[in-house]
From TrEMBL:
<protein>
    <submittedName>
        <fullName>TrmH family RNA methyltransferase</fullName>
    </submittedName>
</protein>
<feature type="domain" description="tRNA/rRNA methyltransferase SpoU type">
    <location>
        <begin position="25"/>
        <end position="167"/>
    </location>
</feature>
<dbReference type="InterPro" id="IPR029026">
    <property type="entry name" value="tRNA_m1G_MTases_N"/>
</dbReference>
<dbReference type="InterPro" id="IPR004441">
    <property type="entry name" value="rRNA_MeTrfase_TrmH"/>
</dbReference>
<keyword id="KW-0808">Transferase</keyword>
<dbReference type="GO" id="GO:0032259">
    <property type="term" value="P:methylation"/>
</dbReference>
<keyword id="KW-0489">Methyltransferase</keyword>
<dbReference type="GO" id="GO:0008173">
    <property type="term" value="F:RNA methyltransferase activity"/>
</dbReference>
<dbReference type="GO" id="GO:0003723">
    <property type="term" value="F:RNA binding"/>
</dbReference>
<dbReference type="InterPro" id="IPR029028">
    <property type="entry name" value="Alpha/beta_knot_MTases"/>
</dbReference>
<dbReference type="GO" id="GO:0005829">
    <property type="term" value="C:cytosol"/>
</dbReference>
<dbReference type="InterPro" id="IPR001537">
    <property type="entry name" value="SpoU_MeTrfase"/>
</dbReference>
<dbReference type="Pfam" id="PF00588">
    <property type="entry name" value="SpoU_methylase"/>
</dbReference>
<dbReference type="GO" id="GO:0006396">
    <property type="term" value="P:RNA processing"/>
</dbReference>
Length: 179
């Protein structure tokens, strides 16, 4: 098997990306400390053509060399907004008709692989701080909570890994929205 060259991958330009149909998903980063995690989420958001990203609280914003190091330019293609308070981003998204989901371990959370994303709806997924998770006030304001099933000895995943898993599941269920 021969690996494909960059030219053979036939990627779209930033301009075409901006005009392309998007997956009805926004990711909200709630006080993410690591700029590398932020960059990684940008890169995943680009790969699956998300509507955008909200960067909230202490989460760094572009331009930043540490974000660019992992985003590889996706910070230029993916729409993003900054909001000082995550709760304000949640309220704006809900006003705009999004179903807002916290990706967090709570008593009533639904397992991600069992959650049914509907093609007629728009979604926002909140990802929390690497140590403290999603703020309780933000969890309380969400429409629902989802959780990634885990079977090992650890109780959490890296935030950018969690983002990738959650984004993939939404994409997998709603991919026909991009066609």
């Amino acid at each position: 098997m021969q690996k494909l060259t960059v030219e053979e991958l036939n990627r779209i330009s930033i301009e075409n990306f901006r005009e392309a149909k998007k997956l009805p998903l926004v990711v909200v980063l709630d006080n993410i400390r690591s700029l590398h995690n932020v960059g990684s989420v940008f890169r995943t958001a680009d790969a699956f053509r998300l509507e955008g990203i909200f960067l909230c609280g202490i989460t760094a914003t572009p331009p930043a060399i540490e974000i660019h190091k992992t985003a590889l330019g996706a910070e230029d293609s993916v729409e993003w907004k900054y909001e000082e308070k995550t709760i304000d981003a949640v309220n704006k998204l809900k006003e705009d008709g999004y179903v807002v989901l916290a990706l967090e371990q709570v008593k009533e959370s639904k397992m991600l692989d069992k959650y049914k994303f509907e093609g007629s709806k728009k979604y926002a997924i909140i990802l929390g701080n690497e140590v403290k998770g999603v703020q309780q006030e933000v969890v309380d304001a969400c429409n629902d909570t989802i959780e990634i099933p885990q079977y090992g000895t650890k109780h959490s995943l890296n935030v950018s890994v969690s983002a990738g898993i959650a984004i993939w599941e939404v994409f997998f269920q709603l991919r026909e929205k991009l066609m």
